[in-house]
Design a protein that fits this description.
Radius of gyration: 26 Å
Number of domains: 3
Number of strands: 5
Structural class: alpha+beta
Mean pLDDT: 85
Order of helices and strands: HHHHHHHHHHHHHHHHHHEHHEEHHEE
């Protein structure tokens, strides 16, 4: 029966959702990376190598800021997925608590950064007085933008959940344009140096926040900020659930300190400038795997809340196969374009920084296809609360692997040792994933599902669930008999078997007849039927235009028994019917 079910189901709807959400997630990360490139270009061309070195010193702080924000984003996403299918009203508390904690944290960090720059508490970063002076100025300028940076990333996450991706795109583009204009104005025209560089980034973050916050201030949003509705224990839950997702970025702060020290000791400041130059452009490309993981985390979180084993596997398969293939092609293209990319930053071919940067573009990109595995599995184990794996994997990926290989290779072969260390780190993480699955399953993993080591207790057993994908009316007609056969094999009484088949046929038929015809896009309907002790649960999910059958039923006159007979029948047969629009999908859950 399991093999038959696999033939009835495919991953097209999950893949479609993944690709639909991916551009917006990539855009936000890429905008930050593009801003860094713009800053790097102005630093290298208008300020000089000292300015580039000052920017390089900010990398550990940047990792800390991203880690703190990611902890709150990922923790709130996981709670969102847990409550959206079980306790919908609780999501408002998650929203409010997340924003309140984000505000407090960002204010503390902002004040500490400003005081550090003003009172010279930054001597631990470098002993070079010229670089330190420029770094302090840059740090002061950046301190004004910490609040909108962290709050803006939280709103971006919730807006994505509320299907407001167009607004997030507008906010990201406005941020980029603002930073570009202000970089030229403050650095070239007003000659404010690295302070102007940091201040331009800060003001652009305020623009990013303002565009997004306008939606929540308009009163149109589903989730509204209210301290009155807060369940304050959610703050601890957000941090506990979110810190594994931030751990990799947090420990990267220590990796940056270690790598910077090795570069200064064995290569010199030229190595630091070269790494900053190549990293600033590659950060745009890193937006793609990071965007994949952001989408996957949202889908993983909701699937965890719904106990949907099949979607967990589907989204992982999409990322590992299609994501790795995409990143391999991109790495090859970057390798071929190493020379022209280097000339964007370094014009002097005779400079040692030039050759080091070119080597960076030839070697570093090859760690990206490998990183797909570590990033996606880190998100998965975080959502599934696999505590040990959620600690070991990000720590290995974030610091242990790169630092270990760098300690061996940088003294031996110089700058290229750091680049190769990043590739070896990716190989190490893949081996670690396989070993952890092997230990968990007590056998070598032979499939994506066994590699994920999904707990046996998660969801219902395979023989008591069925997944069907429908794309046309012909398949709808076949559903009734298939479902009744499945129910019979699971000892479900004839009446409930008939009701399950009838409800599924009616809803799926309505979606194919009306939802598919609303536009010229290709659509599909994913149907999941599970047999539980207290009855049958049907979940019908489609990617058509938003349609809430319960709201539609309310506007119908009770005495008009002709219109929407199918919807009326489903609601009369079911114990409970719930509708949600999640990640731009209609999700109807029917309990029989």
């Amino acid at each position: 029966m399991g093999k038959i079910h696999e033939k009835l189901h495919d991953e097209k709807l999950v893949a479609g959702t993944f690709y639909r959400l991916l551009p917006f997630q990539v855009l936000m990360i890429a905008i930050n990376a593009v801003n860094s490139i713009v800053d790097s270009l102005y630093a290298s061309n208008a300020i000089g190598q000292t300015g580039m070195s000052a920017m390089g010193l900010f990398a550990p702080i940047n990792h800390f800021l991203y880690a703190a924000s990611m902890m709150l984003v990922s923790g709130s996403q996981i709670l969102y997925g847990r409550y959206i299918s079980q306790d919908h009203a609780h999501v408002r508390s998650v929203f409010s608590v997340d924003l309140f904690v984000s505000l407090l944290l960002s204010l503390l960090v902002s004040v500490f950064m400003a005081l550090s720059a003003l009172f010279g508490w930054t001597g631990v970063f470098t002993s070079d007085t010229a670089v330190l002076s420029m770094f302090n100025s840059y740090l002061l300028g950046q301190s004004f933008g910490i609040v909108p940076l962290i709050l803006g990333q939280q709103l971006f996450s919730f807006l994505s959940m509320e299907n407001q991706t167009r607004r997030t795109m507008i906010a990201s583009i406005a941020c980029l344009l603002t930073n570009l204009i202000l970089d030229h104005t403050l650095i070239v025209l007003l000659n404010l140096g690295t302070f102007g560089l940091g201040l331009a980034s800060s003001i652009s973050c305020w623009v990013f926040l303002a565009v997004q916050a306008a939606y929540y201030l308009s009163g149109k949003s589903e989730w509204k900020f209210s301290l009155k509705n807060c369940v304050w224990k959610d703050a601890a839950s957000i941090c506990l659930l979110g810190y594994p997702g931030a751990l990799s970025r947090f420990v990267e702060m220590f990796r940056c300190f270690a790598v910077n020290s090795l570069l200064l000791a064995y290569v010199g400041s030229a190595g630091l400038a070269a790494f900053a130059a190549s990293n600033s452009l590659l950060a745009i490309i890193w937006a793609i795997p990071f965007g994949m993981v952001a989408v996957a985390r949202m889908v993983f979180s909701i699937s965890r809340g719904e106990e949907d084993r099949r979607t967990l596997v589907d989204i992982m398969r999409v990322i590992l196969f299609r994501g790795t293939l995409l990143m391999t092609g991109i790495a090859a293209a970057l390798c071929l374009l190493a020379v022209p990319l280097t000339r964007l930053f370094i014009r002097d071919v005779a400079s040692p920084v030039y050759q080091m940067t070119a080597d960076g573009f030839r070697i570093l990109p090859w760690c990206m296809p490998l990183s797909i595995f570590s990033l996606s599995f880190a998100a998965y184990v975080q959502v599934m609360e696999k505590r040990i794996a959620a600690l070991v994997l990000p720590i290995t990926d974030g610091v242990i692997g790169v630092v270990l290989f760098s300690l061996i290779l940088i003294p031996a072969i110089g700058m290229n040792g750091l680049y190769i260390a990043n590739i070896l780190n990716g190989v190490l993480c893949i081996l670690l994933i396989v070993v952890m699955a092997w230990l968990s399953n007590k056998r070598f993993p032979h499939s994506i599902e066994s590699l994920m080591a999904i707990p046996d207790a998660f969801g219902v057993p395979k023989e008591r669930r069925m997944d069907i994908t429908v794309r046309n009316m012909e398949k709808v007609v076949q559903i009734s008999e298939t479902i009744q056969q499945f129910c019979a094999k699971n000892s479900i009484d004839a009446y409930r078997s008939y009701c399950a088949a009838l409800c599924t046929e009616e809803i799926a038929g309505n979606i194919v007849s009306h939802g598919f015809s609303k536009d010229q896009k290709k659509h599909s309907v994913d149907i999941r039927l599970t047999c539980k002790q207290d009855g049958i649960v049907l979940r019908i999910r489609d990617d058509c235009k938003a349609f809430n059958p319960s709201e539609h039923l309310k506007v119908l006159h009770p005495e008009d028994g002709v219109k929407n007979v199918g919807i009326r029948m489903v609601y009369s047969l079911a114990k409970e019917v719930n509708y949600q629009n999640l990640l731009d999908q209609n999700v109807l859950t029917i309990h029989l």
